[in-house]
Amino acid sequence: MISVVFMGRKDVSAQCLAWLSNIEDVKIEAVLTDNHLTISPTAEQAKKLNIPVLTLEQLIEQVENNVIKLDIAFSMLYWRKIPKILINHAKRGIINFHPAPLPEYKGTAGYNLAILEGLSQWSVTAHYMDADIDTGRIIKLMDFAIDVELETTKSLEGKSRAYLLELFKEVASQALSKEELLNSTANQGGRYISRQQMEEMKKITEGDDIDRKIRAFWFPPYDGAYIEIEGKKYSLVN
Asked: In sequence order, which ranges of 9-137 are alpha helices (DSSP H)?
């Protein structure tokens, strides 16, 4: 029996958890999710499957005290940085599914940059976790075409979720079938964008392609691209 911890949020995470629960010889010890929110699809799925929903701190305590045996963990859009103590305890590693191509796009703002930079292809990535954010060795990228003239951040996020689910099933199946780590390549270079930097990118300045920038940050109900007049922000809609 393989002991698994699953971490994730959003609908695609709930779908991954449901799929994982049907794999033979797998015991899902705990789920970490956005249970700080009123509505959490992943938390609801865990409850249906009678799997404990823990906080990160609770998981660390249970792993340290050998209450939970950790063979492998999977992270699908989980929102917190994973501490080294959990990474070191996971015998087969912790595999993260990142909604952007690595090593090029680390951190946040991947969807936004895809549109701002006029890309016609995008990728989602499976990689091992290490002590930093999105820097662990790369297992696999899954590529797909995007519409450079019509895509919004919201539409690209929705499209990427389908590929994230497909990538999860493929990579998780391989990782659960063998005790050794999967083949992987170095994850060097690229750029890291913090959430604060992403927010700063929303401001429209002279020379910007305004229509493209609106699309690049169109993700209601969140604030989108904006102009600033006399110290006030005004969101733009084309």
From this structure: 10-20, 41-48, 56-64, 84-89, 110-116
